[in-house]
Amino acid sequence: MTRNLDWSELKTILDDRRVSTGESVLHLHSHDESFHAPVLPDVVVWPHTTEEVSRLIRWAGQSKVPVIGWGAGTSLEGNPIPVQGGMVIDFNEMNHIIDVHPEDFQVDVQAGVIYKDLNKALARDGLFFPPDPGAAATIGGMIGNNASGIRSVRYGATKDYVMRLVVVLPSGDVIHVGNRARKSSSGYNLPALFTGSEGTLGLITEATLKLVGLPVNFMAVRATFPTILNATTTVYQIMRAGLAPSAMEFLDANVMHVLNADRGLSLDESPTLLMEFSGYSEQGLIEEMNFVEEICQQSSALSLDRGIGADQRARLWEIRHQTYESINRYHTGLSPLIMDVAVPLSRYSEMVEFSKKEVHDLTAYLFGHAGDGNIHVLVMDDTQDKKRWTRVEESSRNIVMKALEFEGTCTGEHGIGIGKNCFMETEHGESLALMKRLKALLDPDNLFNPGKFFL
Amino acid sequence: MTRNLDWSELKTILDDRRVSTGESVLHLHSHDESFHAPVLPDVVVWPHTTEEVSRLIRWAGQSKVPVIGWGAGTSLEGNPIPVQGGMVIDFNEMNHIIDVHPEDFQVDVQAGVIYKDLNKALARDGLFFPPDPGAAATIGGMIGNNASGIRSVRYGATKDYVMRLVVVLPSGDVIHVGNRARKSSSGYNLPALFTGSEGTLGLITEATLKLVGLPVNFMAVRATFPTILNATTTVYQIMRAGLAPSAMEFLDANVMHVLNADRGLSLDESPTLLMEFSGYSEQGLIEEMNFVEEICQQSSALSLDRGIGADQRARLWEIRHQTYESINRYHTGLSPLIMDVAVPLSRYSEMVEFSKKEVHDLTAYLFGHAGDGNIHVLVMDDTQDKKRWTRVEESSRNIVMKALEFEGTCTGEHGIGIGKNCFMETEHGESLALMKRLKALLDPDNLFNPGKFFL
Fold first, then answer.
1. What number is the ipTM of this complex?
2. Which residues of A touch B424 (CB under 8 A)?
3. Which CATH number fits domain B331-428: 1.20.950.20, 3.40.50.1100, 3.30.70.2740, 3.40.50.970?
4. What is the C-alpha separation between B358 and A331, in angstroms, rounded?
């Protein structure tokens, strides 16, 4: 969608270098890591301050230009694709850690900080920001998407860490929401309204995040099982027992096969659980591990690798984090459709079994944050082959419908974007109308990440 | 405010017994536990179903009658006082535990369930709902207020436990928000919008709550200190060390004196910390306690009562929970103004010191959920003595202003009601305008708990 606008007007707001309509720049901001078709924006800008963001947004409002926030482009549902063109506001030059408050377990950051960089910087104070989606996501993108990942089973999602935000509204007005107290009952919970709104209600420029102390001791376990059901039942038993793993990941045999092939490993190619436990007391940890081992054995575990040290543990998570990339590399030329349903834990085994059957005729990989009831089904296929891709999308729809039947959600952590907006009505029913009214209230011209969230 | 309406019309919606304009009933629903002046509603109704609530609300909308939700009347900021009269919807006959999902650590309840009753029922499954404000509050009231209490230092506030709500909007429409998965990135976070909205945006009739497994082991400690500063520094040191108490309460010497007098105890009348630690491993707990003891000794603790057993622990919390009532009883004839600021932990000692100085000329008690940076200053005085009461209110204002200067909040857990709406603008600045627009969007006739929240 080409607009006949004088983009050079933007250079009255930002210096030349920070406004681009160059083709390669537009291409870089036309897609995320999903199969969804790229769409070029009209212009990309790199602000440095909230004030600049506000001025850019006022300009866009006057010119009726769509505004799309951009973090690292690592999302998986087409969330930042500028489907109606417009102005992409890239936050990569707003990447400063403004202030660490180690004494309060808090940090103030600009939206463009990469969470892995943040955690490196925080380690010197013995602190960390737990949500851990794997990719090199920015804090702004994580807040926009309410990202979670492998640590959320213990520590919760991004929404649980947002204390205070600076938000630029579609009007260009700048508001500060939240405060730095550990708790508050003051006013409507505006930080929660913006978190997970995928840039449709405003753009987040700064955030104060809650932090957690790095655990003193941890222990990682890899357990393999003869069947998927044995593995998923184990997840349920461990969580049911009130144990609190800091990670609890499921990977099916297909995933293990690709990881071996892609990373030159020789891991058992059986349904696998990767678990991590952490705590203050080593003795306490050992007691927990004994209990975990007992549960695994009752579920007919084939093998159990326990007490993995720091290095091997880091490598294990690195491998887990590379799952998506490894599978994509293994099937060069094919496109990924990744599902992301989450269900109550009691339904997890059924959900995984149903999914496995649903994709039996496809090139499919099952893995996910099992302790949260979150399963990813990754199907690799050819988007150009209409018949096959229709079948891929049908499997996705059936899996989502089953998750909703189980009182779950169509997306545990990847968000709605353009991949899941077709399920919003089924999932939210009459409350979707309220979401639309909130959107119309804040963004009456529908300029903020238009074409997302709502059909 | 008397209305010339035919309240008997309501008897076409509910049977006779569940509609009352009787004087004693109106009186019971005219006040909470604060000093704020009572105001009589026009009518009180007791629905049994969401459908009945919806019909009542549609009737009120057509007749332009204010609607006020009523739980147990235990709030402390005048939150449910029907300051413009109208219809009080009392949820006490919607008090069923609908379904326990022990396998998912979840429960579905009607809004009128008392949380203490809920926890009694859940104990048989080894589960509990952690927010613990002390009074006999209902779940609906706790959600409306985002209540917290002594366990929130470890487990968070009510907002952290709300998974799904049934809400009747001011239009009378019924919406279901949220789902039963442990995590979700689907749509705007509507459960969070209604939680803490104090009945100004809609009424909650049912909720699905997240639960926590009852800890296997716990240990309680009572430590006394020569000065307040020694006590508050200890709080900071313990939290800073990354220890995770399941309660961390501060009580000043005045409070200990009243508790002794009112409850026939003989506790040290010095600044006191009550702490509880809990966990899976007894050995792990002992290690934690050794560390806590060390920190207390470094802060010149006068005494340290450790390893208190289950009975004495229960009694200790019972005493703590009675603090408000004990102090009120001790000063019969005087009225309570209770402050509820919360600040970042690093500012807690300063905040408490400032507060102590601010109320030096008043009959004042300091206590609070120290681990959360939450301090209650309870002043007992005569509301009829204009000069004195003006001084009481001035101290409250000064304490709130200091908390806001420290990047805290005017209310950690009691909510806004009519006691704190004068601070909304200072605390929220430009984001208050957005709150007002949200209110106008959902409740254009301003019938839901009018006169609250906003000035």
1. 0.96
2. 186-187
3. 3.30.70.2740
4. 69
